[in-house]
Amino acid sequence: MAGKIMKMQYHVKAYHGLGRSFARTRFISASTALFITFAAIGFVNNAQAETGRVDQVEQLDGEAGEFELESQNIWVPKYDGEASQLAMGLTFEYGLLDNFIIGTEAEFEREDGENFGLSEFAAQAKWIALSPQENAVGLGIQSSIIYNFEDDALSTETFFIAAIDGKEWTAAANIIASSEAGNLGKFDLGYSARADKEIGKNMQLGMEIGGDIAVDDPKAHWMGPVISFEPIEKGPELEISAFTGLNQNSPDVQFRLEIDWEF
Questions:
Q1: What are phi and psi of 14, to 5 degrees?
Q2: Is the pTM of this model over 0.85?
Q3: How far apart are CA 38 and CA 239, in angstroms?
Q4: Which of 74, 71, 154 is nearest to 111 (CA)?
């Protein structure tokens, strides 16, 4: 997810056919060429979330002609003298191709004593180089250009994504590169990882971890369980999660509610 809200699960497995799969993958469409350029810009001038605040793990899913509407809500209670935070991200995505998805995202924020308002707006694109449904390991990139209303400046955020799609479990890992608003020449690095297992019809239970790799601020790390389910068949998917900080630089606890609807 772009901006301050951040969607590497770990899997150690040799994949000897990776080179051959790359050779078989076709990268000659105009949309793919456009995205390679877009992602390269994002990597050179890249992104980081609000210090210590959880982000989502980005996945490699998409289908030509499919729409997806996502609402992600994060609440961080007061901790160590820091004001509580409430953030909401609204994302709209559309599959131009099975491996090329475009979208927009608006982020709203509120801290103690402040009004709830629009803080960022982003345009994003995702390119799936290797589908996890067709390969042992899926690979892709999602890159965003973000306008920050408070700073009246641009920033970027790029997710380097690896994913595995098993019969009863899935896993995904992200390396996130992000730039501060108005300072595109300097970037921070973060990570997020997640594994989920089916525990019933239309229900999955997972574990997620995330944090900082290279930042100016003290590094933060967090971990917590995630449960996702569809209360109505073919309806929106709900995801509820709670995270605890793994060091003193992280919030003691954070909560996330996500609603995802594909149509």
A1: -80, 135
A2: no
A3: 30
A4: 74
Six-digit token string for 225: 């369980």
Per-residue pLDDT tens, the chain, 263 aa: give them: 444 433 333 333 333 343 434 333 333 343 444 444 344 333 333 333 455 678 889 999 989 999 999 999 999 998 887 888 899 999 999 999 999 999 999 999 987 767 789 999 999 999 999 999 999 999 999 999 999 998 999 999 999 999 999 988 999 999 999 998 888 888 899 999 999 999 988 899 999 999 999 888 788 999 999 999 998 888 899 999 999 999 988 899 999 999 999 98
E-state strands within 42-99: 67-76, 85-97
Q: CB-based burial of residue 107 (10 Å sphere; 0-12 exposed, 13-18 middle, 19+ buried)?
A: buried
Domain annotation for the chain: domains and CATH numbers: 18-262 (2.40.160.40)
Question: Which residues, including other chains, have CB under 8 Å from residue 198's CB and lie 6 or more apart?
Answer: 168, 169, 204
Do residues 173 and 184 lie in contact, with contact meaning Cβ atoms separated by under 8 Å? no
CA dihedral (178, 190, 54, 127) positive or negative: positive
Distance CA 211, CA 224 (A): 12
